[in-house]
Amino acid sequence: MAPYVLPLADLAGITILVFGLFLPRHRRPELVVAFLTTNVGVLAVSAALASSTIGAGLGLGLFGILSIIRLRSEELSQHEVAYYFAALALGLLGGLSAGADLVDLALMAAVLAAVAIGDHPRVSPRTRSQQLLLDRAHTDETALRHHLEALVGGPVLATKVLRTDLVNDTTLVDVRYRPPAAAETAPAVVPAERFEPHRVESLR
User: Fold this and answer.
1) What letter does residue 19 receive in the DSSP assignment?
2) Cα–Cα distance between 179 and 163 in angstroms, integer?
3) 75 by DSSP, 3-state: which?
4) Contact yes or no for 46/10 (Cβ under 8 A)
5) Which of 6, 19, 124, 137 would suit a FRET pair with 194, their CA atoms being 20 to 30 Å apart?
């Protein structure tokens, strides 16, 4: 196959990944530029390293170091990390191989298929996680779960009590729940009286 087949396949793959899978499912356009830039940047640098005397091993090591750096401005969720890793994998597959073959194309297709299946709503139903500061000190886990389900309007999947203040009669809890079907496409909004970001930060 021609040497330009894999870069073109990578560009087609990242287009499908971002505009065919991520955006329709998660509605976060601010991450589009991150995924596209990461993919094209990895593709360009890995292609340059593959044809130089530095060697692809050093390039892979550098990308491995970069991949574990977490920006402190915003923490990525697990499914966003999966898309980020898929963008990296597509770029590496498109840039490191000297010549295109069916194995490389099959690996790219496998990456896309893994994301498409693993992130499908029927395989992994959408959940949300929030920290709530309740105006009541809860010591009974069952009562706390019922109270949270009434607040979030959906079944609570997991709870983690971060702090129970018996003096001020408050409970800080991290809750993961499944939102109602009508609210799955809308951003989660918590009333101010239920969630106080500045106060939560001070209690950590």
Assistant:
1) I
2) 24
3) coil
4) no
5) 124
DSSP bridge pairs for 160: 174
Whether pLDDT at 193 is above 50:
no
On average, the pLDDT of the chain sits at 78
Query: What whole-number distance in Å separates Cα of residue 33 and Cα of residue 55?
Result: 28
Q: Residue 164 in contact with residue 201, Cβ under 8 Å? A: no
d(C-alpha 131, C-alpha 75), whole Å? 15
Q: Domain of 167: which CATH number?
A: 3.30.70
pLDDT tens-digit readout, 30-70: 889 989 998 998 888 888 777 665 555 655 665 665 655 55
The secondary structure of 137-193 as a DSSP string is ----HHHHHHHHHHHHTS-EEEEEEEEEETTTTEEEEEEEEPPPGGGTTSPP---TT
DSSP code, position 108: H
61 and 160 fall within a common domain: no
SS3 133: strand
Compute the average pLDDT of residues 63-92.
73
Helix residue ranges, H only, 16-54: 23-26, 32-50
Q: Are 111 and 13 in contact (CB under 8 A)?
A: yes
Q: Do the beta carbons of residue 176 and residue 156 sit within 8 Å?
A: yes
100 & 151 share domain? no
Enter the tokens of residue 147: 């109270």
Instruction: Count the domains in the chain.
Output: 2
The answer to whether residues 108 and 11 belong to one domain is yes
Instruction: Give the relative orientation of helices 102-118 and 5-15 as an angle to the nearest 10 degrees.
Output: 10
